Amino acid sequence: TPPGMDRPHLAKGVVRYVGEPVVAVVAETLGQAQDAAEMVSIDYDPLEPVIDLDEALADEKLVFPEAGTNVIGTAGELDDSLFANCEVVVSKQVLNQRVAAASLEGRSAACAWEGEKVTFWLSNQNAQSCRDELMANLGLPQEKLRVITPDVGGGFGAKIGSEQEAALLSLVSKQVGKPVKWVETRSENLVAMTHGRAQRHVVTIGGRRDGTVQAYRLEIVQDVGAYPRLGAFLPVFTQMMASGVYDIPKVESRAQTVVTNTTPIGAYRGAGRPEATAAIERAIDLFAAEIGADPADVRRANLVKPEQFPYQTPGGMLYDSGEYVAGLDSVLDAADYASLREEQAKRRADGATKQLGIGLASYVEITAPNNTEGETGHVEIRPDGSALVLTGSSAHGQGHWTTFAMLVSEQLGIDLEKIEVVHGDTDLIPKGVGTMGSRSLQLGGTAVHRAAVDVKDKARKLAAEMIESDEADIELTDGKWQVRGAPNVTVSWAELAQKAEDGLAADVHFVEDRPTFPFGSHLAVVEVDVETGKVDYLRHITVDDAGVIVNPVLTEGQRHGGIAQGAAQALLEEVSYDSDGNPQNASFADYAIITAAELPSFELLTMETPTTLNPLGVKGIGEAGTIGATPAVQNAVVDALSHLGVRHIDMPTTPERVWQSINQA
């Protein structure tokens, strides 16, 4: 964060966005607190707000006058000769709009002092990082601070790290001498919790008329809101992943990061990677339209081929493994692509009111980008033969307990119901990183897996001593240790745990050599009413290859949620402000969260391309659906109207925007 741009606990002299805390009111009941808050009178001197990106770039009005500019960062250089040898060059400005994370549960916190030690209960994604931030914020040593993240109802990146509200809570608690809690309302959540995306792109793509893409440029302006937080880092991921799944010889990008008088931007499911995919996938469709080619053919011709892995991208990424062409073709086959195009042609010829749109997106994403921090896992056999698993990964709806217990059960033969998985308590698990960036299974899961293997190795040695047999002859069968071929003498896990002098446990801190790169292809089918602009979302067929699948049910759940959120951005969701900086979406009455009524039943294809970077062969799946779905659905809406001359519609593709684009075309 640039000097002087940290968000204070409470606004000091200047309020920079609607939703910024100004006063803390403490009461014994919610009703009392609301009544007291209404009695607070504040005199505001209106300032000229900086709302849109052009205003921010112009620097005529400043969010931080002392900084002298709204532009807090620029990265990347542009080469005027990039497209010199291209037969066709297409350029377009595209918007990746601001959205709200809108997790099932908003932000909440509780805090209690016991002597000189303070305990926090936080609705967050990473207890240990929250502890470290609070230690710095409050000036406390580690042993004086405990953070517990219990059963958290969703995060989507917006709950990474602690908030200033949490630190403020501890000061209030100490002053009043009682435990205190804070739970925001849904309206507060929509204007005060970090938003996501908020990038504007100019994509320029060039190549030959035979469909070969030779050069690609991505220009990014990132709105970080009133205070630079994780949003200031998002363009780094977007630039890293700019070329997507394509083997393009020349790729360049430039990013400008600006502050505005709006809610700060943080991570949101995919965090910088969906923005890169949305940009390149719109660019591929624009290029295909310009040369009159089928967008599926243009993709296939330019995809990185299997024999090119590990593949070094122009952006400096080393993709570990992939079957991009096979993924695309399997989606096309499952959708019966040729028949869809025939139906589309028939409707166009008939001048039908409802036109068919078919949208494609092929994607690759980086998972566990913070792989060098690794993750911790602990497995311990209790005296009753049950197992305790401690993990630095932090579940907030993903089902870590089930998957990690499965990994332990597979190694140790202990029934799932006898395995307890614990996360999110810094006293029990002092070292950990948490859950974000689709890192949990490949890092946290591998740490737990390896800890289970270590416990198994220790147990075999101890069992050999107890049975008085050679270690090489000892085997684990149905959760009991025995001499191979002699099941009449066995040793149970309980007996081993009771015999082990120093306990039967293992700790592992697993660090991956480099990140993994899951990939996939999505095909969306929509109907667009050309008289009203209304879009009906009919089908969605996907391949989301995340390496080896450990739990198919949980994998499917992650894909369902991701696809729904990705489609929601394409069709419905947008956080907007008026010219005075007033948010226009302070409740679900005017923020169009997607529901089951708007969604088709997803058609999910299975494909597994293992990675060699961890012993499980797994990659991340939590964000994949979001990354592929957004451009597939947006491309489908544009495709439905391409015969009318429509080349692009910014997200969300609302009936009003669609209707306007038809009339303008």
Automatic annotation (TrEMBL):
Keywords: Molybdenum, Oxidoreductase
InterPro entries: Ald_Oxase/Xan_DH_a/b (IPR000674), Ald_Oxase/Xan_DH_a/b_sf (IPR036856), Ald_Oxase/xanthine_DH-like (IPR016208), AldOxase/xan_DH_MoCoBD1 (IPR008274), AldOxase/xan_DH_MoCoBD2 (IPR046867), AldOxase/xan_DH_Mopterin-bd_sf (IPR037165)
Pfam family, one: Ald_Xan_dh_C
Domain Aldehyde oxidase/xanthine dehydrogenase first molybdopterin binding intervals: 65-303
GO molecular function, one term: oxidoreductase activity
Occurrences of domain Aldehyde oxidase/xanthine dehydrogenase a/b hammerhead (ranges): 9-47
Domain (Aldehyde oxidase/xanthine dehydrogenase second molybdopterin binding): residue spans on this chain: 331-600
Protein origin, superkingdom: Bacteria
PANTHER family for this protein: ALDEHYDE OXIDASE 1-RELATED (PTHR11908:SF132), XANTHINE DEHYDROGENASE (PTHR11908)
Protein name in UniProt: Xanthine dehydrogenase family protein molybdopterin-binding subunit
Organism this protein belongs to: Saccharopolyspora aridisoli
